[in-house]
Amino acid sequence: MTIALTVFQGRAGDHNDLAIPGAMAIANCLGDMLGIAPCTVGQPARALSAGWRTELDSALPALRELQRRFESIFSAGERPLSATSRCAVSLATLPIVGRYRPDACVVWFDAHADLNTPVSTGSGYLGGLALSGPAGLWQSGLGAGIALSSIVLVGQRDLDAFEVELIASGAVRHVPPGPGLAARLADAIAGRPVYVHLDCDVLEPGIVPTDYVHANGLGLDDLRDACVAIARGEVIGVEIAEFQDAWHAGGPPVSPAPLLRAVAPLVERMQRPGHPGPASAAGDSFLGIAGPG
Predict the structure, then answer these.
(1) What CATH code is assigned to 3-288?
(2) For the segment 104-162, what is each residue's pLDDT rounded down to a tens digit?
(3) What values do phi and psi take at 146, rounded to 5?
(4) How far is CA 213 from CA 54, 101, 109, 255, in A?
(5) If both were cysteines, with which of 14, 148, 262, 265 could 171 make a disulfide (CB 3.0 to 4.6 Å apart)?
(6) Domain ranges in the chain?
(7) Distances from the Cα of 242 to the Cαs of 19, 29, 76, 142, 162, in angstroms?
(8) How far, in Å, CA of 269 to CA of 250, rounded?
(9) Of residues 260, 269, 261, 281, the one with CA closest to residue 237
(10) How far apart are CA 217 and CA 223, in angstroms?
(11) How far apart are CA 290 and CA 44, in angstroms?
(12) Which parts of the chain span the membrane according to its record (predicted)?
């Protein structure tokens, strides 16, 4: 089955100007590895670092273009692999996933749950509303269609009160960092097809450059083990967000290759949807390597 590679280059609630080139670095690296050219959606623009309403209004034209791109991908029977710069881009992607694959669960790797609403948010940050919009907890103008019961949160360790209540109520599943994460994740997925969102701040600080840093995150081996567990079943799509191309503005570029080696089992599974390999070998042929080192 064909993989459709996309890179989002518009504004999406950016605090700085590092994630847009970071997304392009990921897309170019994936394109070189897979031998396919990424489709670019949106045009780079300087960060506004404004409240959620201003940021959403600015982002809507490019986000609607991305929705049209996802519509064409799913209509053609392809699988989306995307570098999405910021988590807020999921306001556009997930409603299309929900429309075409209501049987799937969304595995949300992130230090945060991003399930706040315009009413519950304390920061007013658009990215903190990225998952709640597709879940129908507020009206973004981009649609909904993801049931709370279809969400599996993974790696969260900075949760707001509203999000803690959602988890405590059993409305969403939460797989916190710690021993046995891959097995606990497999239990939460329960054999369902999976669409993966990866925010790089799910990782321990210092592994890759990202806007937010929170201690006690996943290592690359933890992430790869989780991806191997997911790859035992159907992977319908992957989006990678919040990778910055440098540790600071003007700094030397940072390669996304170690990160992409960790998620290789997912890409390998997307390439061979009808032929799942042994979990220990999943992803070994992608990049011609066997691990994230």
Answers:
(1) 3.40.800.10
(2) 999 999 999 999 999 999 999 999 999 999 999 999 999 999 999 999 999 999 999 99
(3) -100, 115
(4) 25, 32, 14, 19
(5) 148
(6) 3-288
(7) 6, 16, 28, 21, 23
(8) 36
(9) 269
(10) 10
(11) 35
(12) none
